[in-house]
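Page 47, continued from p. 46.
Same chain as before, 216 aa.
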Amino acid sequence: MKALGMIEVYSFTTAVCVGDVAAKAADVKVIAFDRNRPISPDVPAPVVMIVKIEGEVAAVKAAVDAGVSYAKGQGKYIVSHIIARPDEDTENMAYLIDINKDKYNKKFPKTFKGVEASAPETKGAIGLLEVEGLVASIEGLDTMLKAAEVRLVHTEKRLGGRLVTYIITGNVSAVKAAVEAGYKGAKVLGRIFGNEVIANPHNEILKFFDMESTIS
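Result:
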């Protein structure tokens, strides 16, 4: 590994968007998403996520700068750092992934180290809705799926189900309509910590989700 870049932010949604922005900014690989809990309850979201990227030093710096700019614009930036030529044990630790604990994506590898992961090319979009509470999140999901021609491709439950993120896919207009409707439906029952649409998501992000999956 030439260089390791890390960007720490609040919320799963922000982390995915940061990874997409970073991957589009330079020739880097997104190698993992990791998780921590905030020390204080008075934060923008009750979960801390770390986006890890690797590549040439200059590329990692450009990618980190782009990701940081996005996170700061959302008011959810915490800290970032770049390590040139990380130690072998540090590199191994960097590849540790804390995502897909529900095993929604059954093809998801335990690590991307040494894995040339690929994802289907898409001209569509993904939408993310991150909600406090299972009841509110399921209402938001149902509303999204009924509002437009979209499909659920990933779920993330955090804090014992107290924080849930659903990821949907479809064409850009459908995903925008679905996320907007899901936000309105869910916010009646719980707090919303993320509602974003990523048009033409980078394959470095799509590889973390099984874009062909259906729930079973």
